[in-house]
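Reading a protein record of the kind used here takes only a little practice. Think of the row as the fold of the chain written in a discrete alphabet. A record is reproduced here so that you can trace the correspondence yourselves:
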Amino acid sequence: MNIFRLLADLMHLASFVILIYRMMKQGNCRGVSLKTHELYLVVFCCRYVDLFLYYVSLYNTLMKIFFILGTAYIVFLVRVRYRVTYDQEHDTFQHWKYLAAPALVVALILNHGYSPFELLWAYSIWLESVAMLPQLMMLQRKGSADRMSSHYIFALGGYRALYVINWMWRFFVEGYI
């Protein structure tokens, strides 16, 4: 593992901590897109379906478990605990129709193989690339975001940017394809 992946994973963890802390401290989920987090839950469940079949490392296993459970907890907070504060009128993006379904079609066409694991992995990659759109559309409709939501979005963006550097490092320095 290189430093860029480690920093990316830490930024991703920070995004979860920031968002969960923000919702629990403020006692609401205003400004949080349920649809984005439902998509992320699908992303992580598809990507980490091998969790109990293959062991890579304790770090890898714990991160996979945390990403699935953390995302499921955020969905729970929005759907159950803070549902009366959910901003449904601004979170209107039809995510299953315009993001999940097209990502599935793309995954069936653009992938490295047709094994179930490869198809689920490809689907998770394509879906993750657009999963943040409902959150961004919600922010555009609202016109603003509170400070903690901005920090969450920054941490999530930082995670993605560092992962791009990680993959470049792996390709150019480690020769990984």
